[in-house]
Design goal:
The chain is built from eight helices and 14 strands. It is 26% helix and 38% strand. A hairpin with a 2-residue loop joins strand 11 and strand 12. The longest helix is centred in the N-terminal third of the chain and has 26 residues. The strands form two sheets. A twelve-stranded antiparallel barrel has the order 2-3-4-5-6-7-8-9-10-11-12-13. The protein is α+β, with helices and mostly antiparallel strands.
């Protein structure tokens, strides 16, 4: 079922990329020596690091411990890891990929800016995979899941990509230096002299410094808590950690999450999660029963304007005896999200959740690390 859903989406991704690429060929202008033409700038150049990078499939296998997935701006590749083992989570990890930010099927940032909401949602689509191990009634089980997710800003002007693109296009200081460089090149050519590469490099360095200054000013306006909505669909499986054992469904999950700006330094997450055909793990040893459920959750987050540290409080209506649909999900928790270094966020949680077998409530702590690869290697505009 999941592959039948993913295949048409991949075809749509590739087809839309071809359309955008053809349009880009028709409008591309010659690049100035030593600089980039706007049409050649790819979406990956406008990534920002404002929240922990998310892997939506992680919530399906109980890796995140929460019904709420943080809405980060899309990254090219994200890794998610739970370094501390517990009864509910052992060797948990996940991976998320955004095709449009990779060199294989990139789109121009100008077409993201000029596109409509649906085109931007398509460009923000990520595919994720996660796996985890858990212990239920003294038996070890493996869990894995796939998911698709996307998001959009309620106000387009709050989208960091649009904000940074406008800064890129309207930086008069950088344009002035480019004009000076081109005038120098024309003068040298008219005098039948070869323009000096060293002189051109000096102009480019000055232009880069000016552009960086424009970017820095615009980054100060980017809000980590700008109102936006994310949509996710995925499904997973669970099986006994024994060779040849049967797989059971963790259910098909549809999740919609909204982040709403409350004040300059606070935001409210609201999540609705619909699960269909999830196996009841409390009876897995003796019978196979599938059930449907609805889950509601809310998270209040307070963070500094530099967005490097967040404090949060979350609650949900997760209940015991709901099988795999609610197992290991926090009923209430407090926590922090901390930017450790470029692209690496530490997430700490402590609260009450249902046990792995879904029968009781327990108090537990959780630690996860998320890695945004492009930010870690310096190809991401961090908040300052």
């Amino acid at each position: 079922m999941m592959m039948r859903m993913i295949s048409p989406l991949l075809a749509l991704l590739l087809t839309s990329n071809h359309v955008w690429a053809e349009a880009e060929k028709g409008e591309k202008t010659a690049a100035k020596p030593g600089s980039k033409s706007p049409a050649e700038d790819k979406l990956a150049a406008f990534q920002v690091d404002i929240s922990p990078a998310a892997v939506s499939a992680a919530s399906i296998v109980g890796l995140s411990g929460s019904a709420i997935t943080t809405i980060q701006t899309a990254q090219d590749i994200v890794a998610f890891w739970n370094p501390i083992e517990s009864r509910e989570s052992k060797d948990g990890k996940g991976l998320s990929v955004n095709p449009y930010r990779l060199p294989f099927v990139p789109i121009g940032a100008s077409y993201y800016v000029n596109g409509n909401t649906l085109q931007r949602m398509l460009a923000n689509t990520s595919l994720s995979y996660a796996e985890n191990q858990t212990e239920i009634s003294s038996l070890k089980f493996k869990k894995n899941a796939f998911a698709l997710d996307t998001y959009f800003y309620l106000k387009a002007d709050d989208d960091p990509i649009l904000m940074l693109w406008k800064a890129f296009k309207s930086c008069t200081a950088s344009k002035t230096i480019d004009d000076e460089k081109n005038a120098y090149i024309r003068t040298e050519i008219e005098a039948k002299r070869m323009p000096s590469p060293e002189e051109i490099e000096k102009y480019d360095q000055r232009a880069w410094t000016a552009q960086s200054s424009c970017d820095t000013e615009e980054k100060k306006r980017i809000k980590w808590n700008a109102s936006r909505v994310a949509i996710s669909y995925g499904q997973g499986h669970i099986q006994n950690d024994t060779s040849g054992s049967q797989k059971y469904q963790l259910g098909k999950k549809f999740i919609i999450t909204g982040l709403f700006e409350i004040s300059d330094d606070a935001g409210l997450y609201m999540t609705y999660q619909r699960t269909r055909n999830a196996v009841d793990v409390t009876k897995l040893a003796t019978a196979v029963e599938l059930s449907n459920s609805n889950l509601l959750a809310a998270r209040y987050v307070v963070g500094s304007d530099k967005a490097t540290l967040r404090y949060l409080l979350e609650v949900s209506n997760a209940k015991a005896n709901k099988g795999a649909s609610h197992e290991a999900t926090f009923k209430s928790a407090v926590g922090i999200d901390k930017l450790v270094q470029k692209g690496i966020w530490l997430q700490l949680r402590y609260g009450k959740s249902t046990t792995a077998d879904g029968k009781e409530t327990e108090t537990k702590g959780l630690m996860n690390l998320s890695f945004a690869m492009s930010c870690m290697i310096g190809k991401c505009k961090e908040m300052e």
